[in-house]
Amino acid sequence: MSFAGEASSDVPTLPGTHSGIPAYLLEKARNAKGDVFDGRTKPIKDRQRLPVVPQGIERDDFLAALAELKVQIGNENVEINDKPLKDGWYMEHPNTHDMMTILDEEELVASAVVYPSSTEEVQDIVKWANKHRVPIFPISMGRNLGYGGAAPRVRGSVTVDLGKRMNKILDINPEDYTCLVEPGVSFYALYDAIQEKGYHHLWIDTPDLGGGSVIGNTVDRGVGYTPYGDHWACHSGLEVVLPTGEVIRTGMGALPGNNTWQSFPYGFGPYSDGIFSQSNYGIVTKMGMTLMPNPGGYESFMYTFPNEEDLAPLMEIIRPLRISMILENVAQLRHVTQSVAARGLPRSQFYSGTGPIPPDVIHAAAASAPVGDHTWAYYGMAYGPAHIRAHKLALVDAEFRKIAGARKVDPATLPADEYYFSRDRVAAGVPDIHELRWVNWAPNGAHIAFSPVSPIRGTDATRLFALGKRLHDAYGIDFFPAFCVGLREMHLIVEIVFDRDDAERKQAALDCLRDMIDEAAAMGYGEYRTHLVLMDQVAATYSWNDNALMKFNEKLKDALDPNGILAPGRCGIWPKRYRGRGWEMTRESGAASEGDGVGPAPEAKCDQGEFSGASHPYP
Ligand code: ADP
Asked: Is 570 in the pocket of ligand 1 (CB under 6 A)?
């Protein structure tokens, strides 16, 4: 099978490519790429549904508008999306569609991509979109894997790829432990820059994979695994281009001449940052992030527990330890099926039958691996100098050993490429690329997540586990649950791995997700984050008091974005022009993502140049 040279090209690297891999991970990335393309059979197909033009504008008018945009932003910085859709892989991901699509691959696609180089150009693009009533969709890196990747929610939107040309680290402050970044700065790039400067007293916090944008991950409320793992809570200060083209700075950034934008997030007045996360109210062009002080030492630990029923008593043990910060990071309690898949081998090497892989097969596979057989694996990290770590580790050990059969894994018995060491690096703020290995479980492996929030309690964990297991069994899907324990709550992350070239398995995955979301909501559990295709359904579960929250969100949307041009439908928030026309994706709408047209736009003031939105180059 040929992938038009895709499989044989080398992995792009930093700093030459903003989305590239750092040198210390290059070999690992090359191997990961080999594994991905070994399992790839999905052909690159000719496009069937061309040209792509967003609803609400005639084709000729749209092409004329794009020509105008080319004059403004530069011919080479506006690309029409009419070529075959290449899925690439993590390090060479597309910016036109979801490389892990669960729908028909031509459903959620962009009509064109534009690459701004500055906040001013982002303002120009926003004003252009208002003038021509073209939906635009901002991405920073476009790697939002499992949540829609780079795809826009409205087919035919013009993707604003901020990362390619706006990728500067504007400041790293080694005394205040803060930084200020543009959208195209990845966790890899931030880590590299800090190492290069020799600032070994500064730590970053990274998600499982380090290729995402610091801004993109934070505005979508992603998490990492040091004590600074709640990225949104750790950011300080935004610069935002509003949907009508003005630019604002939040918090202390609104005070001219301030020197506290990155150290005090609130400023004066309403705390407006919240409306720019998981929303479609603005385009973030700069963000401040706090950095963690090097704790002066760290030590990973891993315990395994033998039985599924250990889950409930374990949660009761974990809760007080986590709330009192004896367990200091967003730690993970992973199920053995995912531990086996994390070896990166295809499922077919273990089992050739259909339906969920039988437990005895999984346990036999686990028993033959270096960690040994288990049902649950807990990965944690103790921070600080040795005597402080020893105190915390002793408390954890005494508590965990109350579970019969609990076993502390000795890292000295593990080979260097064992998953444990990836968790060790990530919890020490060193970005890695190991995590995507379990996606190779299926040929043409893709993944999509169900991620409900619950209290850290045995009863809740057991209910959610039983719900997920029952529905996975019903749809013949292997069950990969991991409980990620925050401070006072936990996210259960259930990743469904599927073959993106198998329409029947995609449908099963989608049906299973829709059932899990509805049933979990009926029990009082809601998602912390979701895929584009599921956003309407998840938003509708937050319905208290006759959907009061969504009514408020719509009021904000209509006030801030009267023409409804910015990421319509993202997070279930539809602008007025789209409402009541069947744009919502639900179980009933099936795989169709589009509604029946858009309504007329109100005469927008920004058309008349009223919102000139003077911008202020940094600082
Ligand atoms: P990642 O950082 O994981 O590669 P993206 O860059 O795709 O992810 O960002 C995730 C999502 O967050 C996007 O789909 C988009 O909706 C939103 N987003 C990303 N960057 C911005 C931004 N600068 N301003 C507003 N929304 C953004």
From this structure: yes
Predicted confidence (pLDDT) at residue 606 exceeds the cutoff of 70: no
607, pLDDT greater than 60: no
Instruction: Compute the distance between CA of residue 118 and CA of residue 125 in angstroms, rounded to an integer.
Output: 11
Q: Is 351 a catalytic residue?
A: no
Place of tokens 């901020």: 162
Model-level pTM? 0.96
What's the 501 CA to ligand 1 centre distance in angstroms?
26
Listed residue (278, 243, 247) closest to 560, CA to CA: 243
Residues 157 and 16 in one domain: yes
Q: Backbone phi, then psi, for 53, in 5-degree steps? A: -130, 130
Question: Is the CB of residue 508 less than 8 Å from the CB of residue 475?
Answer: yes
Last residue in a domain, options 534, 569, 603:
534
Residue 121 φ/ψ, nearest 5 degrees: -70, -35
Q: Tell me the backbone φ, ψ of residue 286, rounded to 5 degrees.
A: -150, 150
Residue at which a domain ends, from 103, 135, 161: 161
Which three-class secondary structure state does DSSP give residue 468?
Answer: helix
Asked if residue 510 lies in contact with residue 530, where contact means CB atoms within 8 angstroms, the answer is no
Q: What is the maximum span of the chain, computed from C-alpha positions, in angstroms?
A: 72
Separation of 33 CA from ligand 1 center, angstroms? 24
pLDDT in tens, 469-493: 999 999 999 999 999 999 899 999 9
Residue-range definition of the domain harbouring residue 88: 2-161
User: How many A from CA of 272 to the centre of ligand 1?
Assistant: 18
Q: Please provide the size of the chain in residues.
A: 619
Residue 612, pLDDT score: 41
Distance of CA 500 to the CA centre of its chain: 19
* 437 catalytic per annotation: no
Q: How far is CA 91 from its chain centroid?
A: 15
Is residue 529 part of the annotated active site? The answer reads: yes
pLDDT in tens, 273-295: 999 999 999 999 999 999 999 99
**Buried-exposed string 153-167: b where 16+ CB fall within 10 A, e elsewhere:** bbbbbbbbbbbbbbb
The catalytically annotated residue of 90, 115, 147, 379 is 147
Is the pLDDT higher at 610 or at 320?
320
Residue 223 in contact with ligand 1 by CB distance below 6 A = no
CA of 183 to the centre of ligand 1 (A): 8
Residue 554 corresponds to which tokens in the numbers above? 């719509």
Domains of the chain: total = 3
Same domain, 304 and 397: yes
Pick from 90, 215, 220 the residue to mutate for probing ligand 1's pocket: most ligand atoms within 8 Å of its CB: 220
Asked if the structure places residue 400 within a domain, the reply is yes
Grade residue 2 by pLDDT with cuts at 50, 70 and 90: low
The residue written with tokens 């979990």 in the block is 520
Q: Which of 383, 525, 528, 578 is catalytic?
A: 528
DSSP annotation of 591: T
Ligand 1 in contact with 157 (CB < 6 A)?
no
